[in-house]
Amino acid sequence: MRSAATTGHRRLLAGLLMTVACASAADRCQAAAGDEEALAARLRRRVETLTAPALAGRAAGWPGGRAAVDTLAAWYAAAGLGPAFAGAWTQEFPLTGTGWTGDALAGRTGANVGGTLAGDGRLAGRWLIVAAHLDHLGELAPEPATMSVPADSAFFPGANDNASGVAIVHELARRLVSGSGAPAAGSDCRSVLLLNLDAEEVGLQGAAWFVDHAPVPMDSVDAMINLDTVGHLFDGRLIVSGLGTAAPLASVVDVAAKSADLDLNPSSGGWSGSDHMVFNTREVPVLFLFGGPYPEYNRPADTAGRLDYPAMARVAVFTAELVAGLRTVPGAFDWRLVASGGLRDQAALAGSEPSAGGGGDRKNENKQTWLGTMPDFTEGQTGYRLAGVFDGSPAAAAGLQKGDLLVRFGDYPVSDLATFTTALWAYEPGDLVEVGVTRDGRDLRFTVALGDRAQRR
Fold it and tell me: Please, which residues have CB within 8 angstroms of residue 374's CB and are 6 or more apart in sequence?
């Protein structure tokens, strides 16, 4: 029996789906134009639907999250894909509590959503998976007994994290079914599984369930492409990691970037803390597409109106070119183990502050110490470079600035983002810590009164 809250959200969902159906007709008209403006408009409509108050932040296991699942299943069906899970669009799984969710998820279920497009010829039995997690953080103070729609400031919309990635995956579905960028008739090409994973925000649970209950043999999956937080491009570049996890990836990524006229910040490792990491541990080659840190991360201010839709459109074109290129590469891909080496990869293993865009190991999410900085993920530098400083944060109050290279934190030397995270979590909110930075060639020291992450709201 469904709760009143679930019933209420289902009613709201019916209205949303009607809106999407109308939008789909408009999409078909706009598709003929084929210009970036029309593409950006389609992406924006998807994001606005996913961030509507009726979906209440899409928390896994809550009515708003289930409404998002139903919405995405309807979108795949409307696009003309086949259902991914033995005739079903969704894959249900039990949720488990984590260190910071406690018992809130007990007895609740999540659901992955997926659709498929068959390949052709000798590669038809090989698969590409293109994924984006559907869930976000939900309401600031969820009340399961009510079916009221939260106020705008009472939930986390998650426009960038990760309605942006979901919107691009569904744009890809539209393109694949329409034949845009398809291989020539009779060519050998891989099948494609488009996937929206649930419960990423509570420990990558949907990804873990999927790889253990996959609808296709895992040894037939040649690559998993994961889009997470792609609504902005930090410094105008898309971060793409995992290029070293299989031999063909780097060259295909390079060709796709040139076709899409998109600048990249590439790295070899595939351990960044989002759903693809689960696939990498199962020896599936991965590519992680990530737009970089942004100030609204995990805040109610992460709204549809703040995204850079022309940039998203370029990422969508890049993704489509990437998939088209990977579908026809001959033979199976051999997975390679790439040790963590870049800042983004090390952040995933140790956690980060803030863990931008789905990054960071959730095992430490209950640690509340807060400095208030954004990491610069550029590789090849020794230290923790600040890409930004939150207004009103302990870092800002102490005088730290964007561009500072942090090399010492209290008793700990800092050589990268991972060592910074280890140092940060050695202290508690309220501690006074001396921080050493390099700024314009000068060595400076600041005393920081560390804060609590709850202050970020």
Answer: 293, 294, 295, 354, 356, 386, 387, 388, 389, 390
Secondary structure of residue 269 in the 3-state scheme = coil
Q: Would strands 451-452 and 369-370 be described as parallel, antiparallel, or unpaired?
A: antiparallel
**CA-CA distance, 161 to 138, in Å (whole number)?**
12
Q: Which two tokens stand for residue 280?
A: 């990498």
Q: Are 457 and 301 in contact (CB under 8 A)?
A: no
Pairing of β 405-409 and β 384-389: antiparallel
Q: Which CATH superfamily is domain 350-456 in?
A: PDZ domain (2.30.42.10)
Task: Supply φ then ψ for residue 147, to 5 degrees.
Answer: -110, 20
| Contact status, residue 53 vs residue 304, Cβ threshold 8 Å | no
Task: List the end-to-end C-alpha distance of the chain, in Å, as a whole number.
Answer: 36
3-state secondary structure (DSSP) of residue 29: helix
> How open is the CA angle 66-67-72, to the nearest 5 degrees?
95
Residue type, 300: P
Inform me whether the pLDDT recorded for 26 exceeds 60: no
- State the pLDDT confidence band at 339, using cuts at 50, 70 and 90: low
Please, what's the b/e burial string for 116-149 (b: 16 or more CB within 10 A of its CB; e: otherwise)?
bbebbeebeebbbbbbbbbbbbbbeebeeeebeb
| Owner of token pair 């076709």 | 259
CATH 3.40.630.10 holds for 4-327 = yes
Listed by start position, the domains of the chain span 4-327, 350-456
DSSP 103: T
38, 30 Cβ separation under 8 angstroms: yes
Q: State the Cα–Cα distance between residues 296 and 404, nearest whole angstrom.
A: 21
409: region left, alpha or beta (phi > 0 left; psi from -120 to 50 alpha): beta
Of the CA atoms within 13 Å of residue 4, those in its CB half-sphere come to 7
Tell me the torsion sign for CA atoms 315, 317, 319, 322. negative
Rounded distance between C-alpha atoms, residue 83 and residue 176, angstroms = 15
Distance (Å, rounded) from C-alpha 289 to C-alpha 268? 12
User: Which pLDDT band, with edges at 50, 70 and 90, does 184 fall under?
Assistant: confident
DSSP sequence for 175-224: HHHHTTTPPPTT--B-EEEEEE-S-STTTSHHHHHHHHS-SS-GGGEEEE
Crossing angle (nearest 10°) for helices 164-178 and 4-33: 50
- The model carries a pTM of 0.74
